[in-house]
Fold each of these.
Amino acid sequence: MRMKVPIAIALFLVAATFVLAAPSRSAAQQPKMDVKLFVGVSGTTFVSMLETGRERDTFAGWQIGFGPRIRRRAWFAEVQFSFNRWAFAFDDPDIGGFTGRTNSFELPLIGGYVPYKNAFFKLYLYGGLVNHFNTKIIVKAQGQTLKLRPKEIDFAIYQALARFGANFDVAMFNFDFNYSISMNSATTTSYRTGYHQIQVNIAYLF
């Protein structure tokens, strides 16, 4: 996984640059760029493959971000940096109940197809790789607040996610719906923990 992810990133950037930035004979076919500033909500599900079976936990969160989108003809590519936060709550037999939140940021490399467009509406279908980095976990338990690094609680710092989604422009607004699934474990424990996320975002286009 450590070797494949950088190769995938490099191939994506090379392919996007070649397709979208190649010279065109027609002014109407020149690449067009928008900058998206977006905010949204998410639902994150962790699926732990334990010896006793699968355990699922779903948590709510939000994200905010920005980035460029380049479109040429019926194809487009975008790189959207975002800050993400989701809250969690667990019950532990030793310390009792505890809550907290996880801070992270993402760098998705997205490419896709524009099946329909007119002067006021454009539809985008896409897929791509999401580089997800967990940065800080804040835990509240027994009246105390702890700020922890991911590795201190066996949490993965880096996750590679596959993302699929659809979004559409209405005038200067963009509405996005996407689903992501992890390609590596969300923890560094001996058992695998899958990561699933659904996002709904609204963006303003500059």
Amino acid sequence: MWNLDDKARYVKVHSFSLPEAFTYADTREGQTDRDKRERIRAKAAEDFPENIPSIKWWAFRIFIKKSGNRRFDIDNVPKLIVDAFCKRQIEEDRAQQYTKLGLFPDDTIHFVRIIEVGGMRSQDEDITKVEIFGCK
């Protein structure tokens, strides 16, 4: 398999946490995929590195805590996060203020090869922790 903590092979480029947990394909006002990508980008933009090292391809490690008992499909979480850093999606969202967050041209396997997702129910909080790695 792989070990994203292997510093000989991978470099952690950025990490951040969102005080919410959500999936894609919600059409309610303020909860659309575009709205969620904007919230992801806004949080990621805080302390985003100025210089990105040379990367062969990208990997994401995502951990979610979700409160309550409503259905929550964890497999629908990574799409929004990966797309938030896709140059094509940033352009389609007309999110020019986040151009510097565009790490890869498209969200295909050519550019993003690993997505690790884990999660658990929580009594009192919703949180999404995101780590972004590059293969050296």
Amino acid sequence: MIKHLKSLGFTNRLALILVLLLIGMVTGGFYLAVRSIEASFTGALYCYTVIATPLGTALSVVLAKVVDKNKAENTDNGKGVKFAAAEARNFIEDYDVESPPI
């Protein structure tokens, strides 16, 4: 799992962190709501709403832009940029010349 995360690009790692942050916000809101119900609190949770709403909106916009970037990266003349680059190299991966032979 760690090896896979290291192989991801910066924007994909950023997107994963933002998704985890959104999950944390939803979980925190649920926990706050449950605790408020247990305490018989009937008022609004402004303290959470004022922070969570703009932050959730901003994170959603950034995640949408990451998806747009990935979509643009992988589309070119119907094949996809990464596929076209691999095809140009005859699907041979580039290896470090200083690595030991397998």
